[in-house]
Each structure stands twice: as structure tokens, then as C-alpha cells.
Specification:
Elements: H1 17-40, E1 54-56, E2 62-64, E3 73-78, H2 83-99, E4 105-110, H3 116-125, E5 131-134, H4 139-143, E6 152-156, E7 162-167, H5 172-185
Parallel strand pairs: 3-4, 4-5
Antiparallel strand pairs: 1-2, 3-6, 6-7
Length: 186
């Protein structure tokens, strides 16, 4: 059955078949081009441009975001007021406990609007032993996307290329498979 198009009746559909095929090809070609352009950044051999991007540690001291390069990294953008972020904390902690000794960076990067004292309070209350930084000026979020929604999680290879990305609460099994694959190929 031929789909209905705007202002056409089913009996008219056969008269417009060549035009419909041309429109479909144009739409599919355009979609393919957009996908290629959109994925180009994700598949870059050089990884994310982290050099020169500074975040701060829990004491307010600057940290180069590029310091994560050289090891696979799980990095999650989070906020203390985000229910999904709080829900993920035990899962991220468990991933840190499982993978840190195997050479994986596990980083929680708090958003720029989250006050440092509030971040530190949550870290203490939730016994978060993985690395916690604050994206004080928002440049980290810009480099990764931009990231506007929390939680947003990435798994990067040792060259800071994105291997996995998820907006919202992530699937722990999927993240573990991605990390295991990166460790096996290293």
C-alpha cells in the first residue's frame, strides 16, 4: 500500500511515484550525510580536545582535564541536585572499586553551577572515593558536547576518544563491557 502524502488521495499516489522516490532518496541521502558529519567528531583519531581545559579539584585547585589521557576513563557529568545523578553514585563507586586498580580513571565532573561546598558535603555523605572535580567555568562541558543535561556519562579510550555516551542513568552492564573491551585491547 502506498503511503498517503499531504494533499494527495490514494488514487493520486501512483501518479507521483517518481517524485516520491526522489524525495525519499533525498531524505535518506541527507540523513546519511548528517549522520556522517555528526559521527565524525566521535570517531576522530585525535580524541577530544582536552589540552588547555582546566577544571578544579575539591580543594579548588586547578586540574588539567587532559590528565585523564593515557588510561581508559569513565567520566560522568553530574550535579548534587540531580536525582538521577544521586541514583548513579553507588554504581559509579562500584565501577571505581572494580576498575581503578586495573588502570581506569573514574571521574565525577560536577557542573559549574554546583557550589564546591555542596559537592564536598555530598562526597563525604555518600563516601565517594572516586575522583571528583568541578567544571568551574563550564569549559569541560563544552568540550564534551556541550553537556547540558545531567547525568551524562562517557567512556573514553586512552586517547580520549568517545567509546560510549549516555544521557541519563547509564546501563552498568554496557559500561562494564565497554571498559573490559578497552582493557583487553590495551
Amino acid at each position: 500500500m502506498t503511503p498517503l502524502t499531504e494533499n494527495h488521495h490514494p488514487t493520486d499516489a501512483t501518479d507521483n511515484a517518481p517524485a516520491d522516490r526522489s524525495r525519499r532518496r533525498l531524505l535518506l541521502g541527507g540523513t546519511g550525510a548528517l549522520l556522517t558529519l555528526g559521527l565524525g567528531g566521535c570517531l576522530s583519531d585525535s580524541g577530544l580536545p582536552l589540552d588547555g581545559v582546566t577544571v578544579q579539584d575539591r580543594d579548588g585547585q586547578p586540574v588539567e582535564l587532559a590528565s585523564i589521557k593515557g588510561k581508559p576513563t569513565l567520566i560522568t557529568f553530574w550535579a548534587t541536585t540531580c536525582p538521577g545523578c544521586v541514583k548513579e553514585i553507588p554504581h559509579i563507586q562500584a565501577l571505581h572499586d572494580k576498575y581503578a586498580e586495573r588502570g581506569v580513571n573514574v571521574v565525577g565532573l560536577a557542573m559549574s553551577y554546583d557550589p564546591l561546598d555542596q559537592i564536598n558535603k555530598m562526597v563525604e555523605e555518600r563516601d565517594m572515593t572516586y575522583t571528583i572535580w568541578q567544571d568551574k567555568d563550564g569549559r569541560g562541558a563544552e568540550v564534551f558536547g556541550p553537556v547540558r543535561v545531567t547525568p551524562t556519562t562517557f567512556v573514553l579510550d586512552a586517547q580520549a576518544r568517545i567509546e560510549f555516551q549516555k544521557i541519563g542513568v547509564f546501563d552498568v552492564d554496557r559500561v562494564e563491557r565497554t571498559l573490559d573491551g578497552l582493557l583487553e585491547s590495551a
